[in-house]
């Protein structure tokens, strides 16, 4: 309502922006210390991964997004947060798991990779969470404390493996030269490293925002608004917020 009022009062354009579109555009931001790539001139793959979303898009140009897959239950970030809660690591959970994983062995525990090799692009992380609950229930408090770093590293690797496998599958199937990773979970160090290794392996270009642009931020929304303004677009004054609007 405030944005609409200001737009009317100052005779400015009003834009209603889907925040996932903001995440997809975040890698293309530029500032004094980060010179993101120019907008890709070809179709590219976008993984938007956060506490509330895990979705894979084929981007056919600004404003044109084909959903290839999405989570059917927990998002990756939610799975991280729930695991952190199981281990009483504190908040933000995903960051805590990542930090503990730095000194852990990612092969120490065998967690499942749900839907990883199914012939589609959907994700599921509730089974991983349940597997972790069952594993921890069989361990004593002393065992958990002793193996906390290994547990975090192994659990984190299971999530990263699924995300990277699906991206590689899509890049190959759609013969893409570019892909981006964005959203809060794109700040995860293991995912960033694995995405960079995937880019090198397939000889494709990766765009991933710096940490300050990974989580929800005003800059990414402003960039989408700028792109819309450049195309001569704006939103009607009767547009209202919606938690279920599709990208």
Keywords:
247 residues, alpha/beta, five-stranded mixed sheet, 5 strands
Structural notes for this entry:
- This protein is an alpha/beta fold.
- 43% of the residues lie in helices and 11% in strands.
- The chain is built from 9 helices and 5 strands.
- The protein has a 5-stranded mixed sheet with strand order 3-2-1-4-5, with helices on both faces.
- Helix 3 crosses helix 4 and helix 4 (93-101) packs across helix 7.
- The chain starts with a helix and ends in a 17-residue tail after the last helix.
Assembly state (oligomeric): single chain
User: Order of strands across the widest beta sheet?
Assistant: 3-2-1-4-5
Q: Give me the count of strands.
A: 5
Structural class: alpha/beta
**Strand/helix succession:** HHEEEHHHHHEHEH
Major sheet: 5 strands, mixed
Write a concise synopsis of the structure shown.
With 247 residues, the chain is of the alpha/beta class. Helices cover 43% and strands 11% of the residues.
Fold blueprint:
Elements: H1 2-9, H2 19-25, E1 44-49, E2 54-59, E3 65-70, H3 76-86, H4 93-101, H5 126-137, H6 141-146, H7 148-173, E4 178-182, H8 189-202, E5 205-207, H9 218-230
Parallel strand pairs: 1-4, 4-5
Antiparallel strand pairs: 1-2, 2-3
Helix pairs in contact: 2-9, 3-4, 3-5, 3-7, 4-7, 7-8
């Amino acid at each position: 309502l405030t944005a609409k009022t200001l737009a009317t009062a100052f005779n400015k354009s009003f834009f209603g922006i889907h925040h996932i579109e903001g995440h997809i555009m975040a890698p293309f931001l530029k500032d004094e210390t980060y010179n993101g790539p120019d907008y890709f001139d070809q179709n590219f793959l976008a993984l938007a991964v956060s506490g509330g979303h895990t979705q894979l898009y084929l981007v056919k140009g600004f404003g044109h997004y084909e959903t290839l897959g999405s989570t059917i239950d927990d998002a990756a970030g939610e799975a991280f947060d729930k695991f952190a809660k199981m281990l009483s690591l504190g908040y933000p959970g995903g960051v805590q798991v990542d930090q503990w994983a730095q000194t852990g062995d990612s092969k120490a525990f065998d967690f499942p990779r749900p839907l990883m090799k199914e012939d589609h692009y959907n994700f599921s992380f509730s089974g991983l969470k349940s597997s972790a609950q069952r594993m921890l229930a069989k361990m004593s408090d002393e065992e958990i404390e002793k193996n906390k770093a290994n547990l975090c590293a192994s659990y984190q690797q299971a999530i990263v493996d699924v995300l990277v496998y699906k991206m590689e599958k899509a890049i190959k199937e759609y013969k893409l030269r570019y892909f981006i990773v964005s959203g809060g979970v794109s700040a995860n160090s293991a995912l960033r490293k694995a995405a960079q290794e995937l880019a090198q392996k397939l000889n494709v270009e990766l765009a991933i925002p710096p940490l300050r642009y990974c989580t929800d931020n005003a800059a990414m929304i402003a960039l989408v608004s700028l792109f819309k303004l450049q195309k001569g677009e704006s939103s009607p004054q009767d547009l209202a917020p919606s938690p279920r609007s599709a990208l």
